[in-house]
Amino acid sequence: MDYIKIRFGPWVPGAGGRLTRTLGDLTRAYSASPGFRPQMDVLESAEEILVVCELSGVAKDDFTLEVDNRYLRIAGVRRQPPQQEGVRFHLAEIVYGPFERMVELPAPVDPEKVSASLGNGFLEIRLQKRGASGPRRVPVTSD
Description:
The chain is mainly beta. Helices cover 10% and strands 44% of the residues.
C-alpha cells in the first residue's frame, strides 16, 4: 500500500493568537513568489473534517502533508514537463513551481483517525474530530 507522508507536531510558528496568525498569513502572501496555488475546500460534519485539495499534475512524492492539532499544511512542487527543443509556446497558462497552503482546521483532530487519498487530480483528507497529537503515517489509496 502506498503512503502519503503526514507529520504531526508543534511546527506551526506563532500559532498562539489570531493576530499573530493573521500577520503570518499576510507576510506569506506578500513574500511568496507567484506560482502554483492549489485550490482547497474545507468541509465539516459532526464527526469529521474533510479537506479537498486540487493537485492536478502533482506527483504523490512531490508534496507533503503536515497536521497539527488545529492546522493542516500541504507543501510541494508542481514540476514542469521537459521542454522539447525547437518548440515555442503560443499560450502558457499552466502554473508550475513550489506551493504551500496552510489552513486552520475548524476543530481539533484525532491523529489516529486520518486518511488521505489522491485520485483524478484531487487530494482528499479525512480528519476525525478530537484533540490529540503525535506522528502517524496514513495509508493513501489511488483510483
